[in-house]
Amino acid sequence: MIPKIIHYCWFGGKPLPELAQKCIASWKKYCPDYEIKEWNESNFNLNSCDYVREAYEAKKWAFITDYVRLYAMVTEGGIYMDTDVEVIKPLDPFLKHKAFSGFEDEVSIPTGIMACEKNFPLFTRLLEDYEKRHFILQDGKLDLTTNVVTITNICKKYGFIGNNTMQDICDFILYPHDVFCPKSHATGIISITEQTVTIHHFSGSWQNKEGKISASIKRSMNGKGTLLRWILKTVAFPFTYIDRVKNEGMGNATYYYINKIIQAIRNCKKI
Q1: 200, 227, 260: which is the final residue of a domain?
Q2: Contact, 117 vs 4, CB < 8 A?
Q3: Is residue 165 over pLDDT 70?
Q4: Does one domain contain both 174 and 101?
Q5: 68: closest CA among 58, 88, 53, 57?
Q6: Are the C-beta atoms of residues 185 and 202 closer than 8 Å to each other?
Q7: How confident is the model at residue 185 (pLDDT cuts 50, 70, 90)?
Q8: Which pLDDT band holds residue 24 (cuts at 50, 70, 90)?
Q9: CATH number at residue 99
């Protein structure tokens, strides 16, 4: 059973923004008997492995969090949540699982909310993988592969299918996106259902300028005509691609867009 601990990370020393304070208040409201633990520079060893030390030196807080969220869950068990995740129903019904999360969209496994028992094997393997990696590569470039990519790719080896349906991947239970992530990252629209228990607001506190511009342009496309959508997509593409390269690396970014093209071709054939 997953213990009643909520973990979150806040590195960099800046004050918590208003949205984060609101979200943490919602955790306390719907999970009143849970321990809430903040991980930061004062209680985590930033020299614990090369990946973390190098990410901290580069001031890439989101990538430090990629490691620390796994460390917290593997060593203590509990639920990890980003500070922009709002809880609207109790999380107790999910504690029966050995581990859980849900879809972020139709194809990706999110890391904004995830949970496991202490020493959960799949997450232990992910943590060990990070401990063998460097954030600064031999050529001086940064390894900007997010753990959304890492976790999704490893789960694919165990049968994960990106189709937004409930799945059991080695006792890692995945729910459809309306349960934990009813907000569209692309449009900003929130589609709450009877099953929704949390809302990931995707505040992008970790994003750079290009990322925030591309997200804003994507949201502005919602509900517009075909021509305007095409124009806005064309304008947004350089920002979107640059943002993905910075956060996931050129290989992963290019792979993402190749898949999008393939999906578009398949959809055209169905029409």
Answers
A1: 200
A2: no
A3: yes
A4: yes
A5: 53
A6: yes
A7: confident
A8: very high
A9: 3.90.550
